[in-house]
Structure to design on (501 residues):
């Protein structure tokens, strides 16, 4: 009881300092000045939930909002490991040791009051090369607060951090990681760069073991992810770092602070600001449209194109990309827009690896089962999803899901702007898990001829990854060389395998 009373007294003294910094503007805030024996969270819960507004600062007159970040747009295999709160000296020292041991630099979102209590500890975090950010003054739930009081809380926290360690925070996160428009407006008014949420939350606060925390991060690891952890809610977090680091090393990822991740990333423009976003449009006038169908393009040079359809998990697509990189091959990917929307960073990584990307509809529906309007919506929406994810338009070539189409469907597709339909002449049916890696390899080696377009998939839990090295080596041994579809298309003129309709 005596220790608890001493802590409350110390926090009260600190709060009086904060009040003085604020010019006595927040003297009655949420019961923080109470000298009772309850915690600050209990004090808030027992106080009136509505925090009295003290007038709206002129800086809040604008409706501009700061960025809201859950994932950072990057094709690099980097993520941000972030921590809320500030634990005791022993726990933090152990945590910093583990991070340094695994060469991880993180972002620490710190409550202003704890910074004022433990400036030496915060200085240790800074000296270790980590980034410091704003976790509000005392991690209160601000979701219902007036914007003027949110602004004041963030301002005071920034001032405390700058006063104690000489750093002006660029980022802020609420206690929960959720954010409101008012929080974003307050952050913008203070000149802060972004409000940061998260994209991976292993819920360490629920008492998960170190192994469970590590396994969760491992499962959802992906480019640009922001991982949310806590320093002061679960002592297992220290041992969890080794699990997280091992998973990242195994998959080829690294952890960097939020600021560095953003600097290494790409500015994510809204769809309407990307030239070519409207290259595909709805068009009911399709009856007289023409299209070109490509199934193979022999050129006498034994050049062939390997293509990949659909979408899969980060682990599956990374494995395909790694194999292609090992053999220095560049291929053509026909991607489903619905999948790409869920992980635009991965789509951009395919492009940045030197591969080309084309449209495979939005949701992989068989085109002959759709009405003209539904089919065009699939094509246009797929084009837009790919354009936004890539931050540039895909190739204006189209592959129908399952390869099935008819003349009417082809004309409907062509009317949207996609006049080039690229199918294939080699199909090992790798989408079927019943086909082993050996089956896939043998089928491709038997069917491939000069100018072939080979169909493969980037679906999870198939045997494509297992077969791919044998396929590549087998075809190379037969004298074939690999090119992208657009490179084969350079030999289209006069080729009888191209069907003009």
């Amino acid at each position: 009881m005596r220790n608890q009373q001493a802590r409350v007294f110390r926090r009260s003294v600190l709060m009086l300092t904060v009040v003085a910094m604020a010019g006595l503007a927040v003297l009655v805030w949420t019961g923080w000045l109470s000298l009772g024996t309850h915690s600050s969270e209990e004090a808030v819960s027992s106080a009136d939930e509505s925090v009295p507004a003290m007038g709206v600062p002129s800086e809040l007159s604008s409706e501009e909002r700061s960025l809201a970040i859950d994932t950072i747009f990057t094709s690099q295999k980097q993520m941000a490991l972030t921590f809320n709160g500030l634990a005791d000296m022993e726990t933090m020292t152990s945590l910093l040791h583990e991070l340094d041991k695994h060469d991880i630099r993180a972002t620490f979102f710190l409550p202003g009051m704890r910074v004022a209590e433990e400036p030496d500890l915060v200085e240790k975090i800074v000296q270790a090369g980590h980034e410091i950010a704003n976790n509000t003054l005392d991690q209160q739930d601000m979701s219902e607060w007036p914007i003027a009081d949110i602004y004041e809380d963030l301002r005071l926290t920034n001032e405390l951090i700058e006063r104690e360690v000489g750093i002006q925070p660029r980022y802020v996160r609420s206690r929960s990681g959720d954010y409101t428009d008012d929080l974003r407006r307050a952050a913008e008014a203070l000149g802060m760069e972004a409000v940061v949420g998260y994209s991976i939350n292993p819920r360490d606060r629920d008492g998960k073991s170190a192994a469970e925390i590590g396994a969760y991060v491992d499962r959802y690891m992906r480019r640009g992810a922001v991982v949310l952890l806590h320093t002061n809610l679960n002592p297992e977090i220290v041992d969890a770092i080794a699990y997280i680091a091992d998973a990242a090393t195994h998959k080829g990822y690294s952890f960097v602070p939020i600021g560095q991740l953003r600097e290494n990333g790409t500015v994510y423009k809204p769809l309407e600001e990307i030239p070519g976003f409207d290259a595909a449009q709805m068009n009911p006038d399709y009856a007289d449209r023409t299209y070109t169908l490509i199934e193979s393009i022999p050129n006498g040079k034994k050049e062939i194109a390997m293509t990949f359809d659909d979408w899969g998990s980060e682990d599956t697509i990374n494995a395909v990309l790694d194999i292609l990189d090992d053999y220095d091959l560049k291929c053509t990917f026909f991607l489903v827009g619905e999948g790409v929307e869920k992980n635009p960073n991965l789509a951009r990584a395919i492009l940045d690896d030197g591969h080309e990307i084309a449209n495979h509809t939005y949701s992989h529906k068989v085109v002959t089962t759709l009405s003209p309007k539904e089919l065009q919506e699939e094509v246009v929406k797929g084009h837009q999803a790919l354009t936004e994810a890539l931050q540039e338009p895909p190739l204006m070539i189209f592959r129908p899901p399952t390869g099935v189409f008819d003349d009417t469907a082809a004309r409907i597709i062509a009317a949207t702007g996609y006049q080039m339909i690229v199918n294939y002449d080699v199909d090992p049916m790798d989408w079927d898990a019943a086909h082993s890696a050996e089956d896939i390899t043998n089928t491709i080696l038997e069917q491939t001829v000069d100018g072939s377009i080979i169909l493969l998939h980037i679906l999870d839990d198939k045997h494509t990854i297992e077969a791919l090295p044998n396929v590549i080596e087998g075809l190379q041994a037969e004298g074939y060389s690999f090119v992208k579809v657009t490179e084969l298309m350079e030999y289209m003129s006069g080729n009888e395998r191209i069907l003009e309709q």
About this structure: The domain at 272-500 is CATH 3.20.20.370 (TIM Barrel). The longest strand covers residues 303-310. The chain has three domains: 2-46, 63-264, 272-500.
